[in-house]
Specification:
The protein is of the alpha/beta class. It is built from twelve helices and eight strands. Bound molecules: 3-methyl-2-oxobutanoic acid. 3-methyl-2-oxobutanoic acid binds next to β6.
Length: 288
């Protein structure tokens, strides 16, 4: 594994906007720790999302709802140490921005000051754009997230495709326009029909980043553990598995277990020597 982070200029919001205007797709992948961040960064991915999906793939929660601000900041810090080039976005977890505007701004600020992220992401449509306006006014870049919003999974009645009727598609477009107007620099569209995502993308000046939203978005995002076959609790249709690391890792661990049981590991090349005369002197001491 290469330990060196990717070299090159750090990606910023203007670079992302330029890519969008030129019609060059933007790539984004989640990361939750130093090692995954180094790999994503070294692969030349434009943006890293420290997603609250970490609650499920790293912390074992059933949904993203229990994730706390402290947990997000803890993982964000580790990612920031590993990524030198990618633009870094940290998710604001459930109830860190909904109840109180001042608290929301402080939490968003924490994600930048302590988590060392470049921007925050929050879920939801145009219903409370005042909070987003205040964050942007405070100098905090904000990414929106509409369509399927996992923090509202109970309200939505499960992981369902959003915007499948003319009315809900219209609402989605209005939400996207409201988020753009409020100052978001980009918007995640999750689990939305491709044709709807395309229309929303065409109506916006800011980039849309799709997940389960077809090929017409300005960019794409996938969860690291899903695309690499490290988490198989769900296998949604929109995920492409680029590797099956889970079975590979399990096989390696089984080989290690067998090597330990049979004393094949550690072999000579994994072992340190003591000079012959020192060993002799030591043995003598032990025997005396
Ligand atoms: O938390 C996350 O990983 C996300 C992506 C699914 C966009 O929000």
């Amino acid at each position: 594994m290469s330990k060196k982070p990717a070299t090159g200029k750090k990606v910023n919001i203007v670079d992302l906007q330029k890519k969008c205007y030129k019609g060059e797709p933007i790539s984004m992948v989640t990361a939750y720790d130093l090692s995954s961040a180094r790999l994503v960064d070294a692969a030349g991915i434009d943006m890293i999302l420290v997603g609250d999906s970490l609650g499920m793939v790293m912390l074992g929660y059933k949904t993203t709802v229990p994730v706390t601000m402290d947990e997000m900041v803890h993982h964000a810090k580790a990612v920031a140490k590993g990524a030198k080039r990618a633009f870094l976005v940290g998710d604001l977890p459930f109830m860190s921005y909904q109840a109180d505007r001042a608290e929301a701004i402080r939490n968003a600020g924490r994600m930048l000051k302590e988590g060392l992220m470049d921007a925050v992401k929050l879920e939801g449509g145009g219903q409370d754009t005042a909070t987003i306006r205040s964050m942007v006014a405070a100098g905090i870049p904000v990414m929106g997230h509409i369509g399927l919003t996992p923090q509202n999974i109970s309200q939505l009645g499960g992981y369902r495709i959003q915007g499948r009727t003319a009315e809900s598609a219209q609402r989605l477009l209005e939400d996207a326009l409201a988020l753009e107007e409020a100052g978001c620099f980009a918007i995640v569209l999750e689990l939305v029909p491709a044709a709807v995502a395309q229309i929303v993308t065409d109506k916006l000046r800011i980039p849309t980043i799709g997940i389960g939203a077809g090929n017409g978005c300005a960019g794409q995002v996938l969860v690291y553990h899903d695309m690499l076959g490290l988490f198989d609790d769900f296998e949604p249709r929109f995920v492409k598995r680029y590797a099956q690391l889970g079975p590979t890792i399990k096989k390696a661990l089984e080989q290690y277990r067998d090597d330990v049981s049979s004393r094949r590991f550690p072999a000579q090349e994994h072992t340190y020597d003591i000079p012959e005369d020192e060993l002799e002197a030591f043995s003598k001491r032990v025997d005396d």
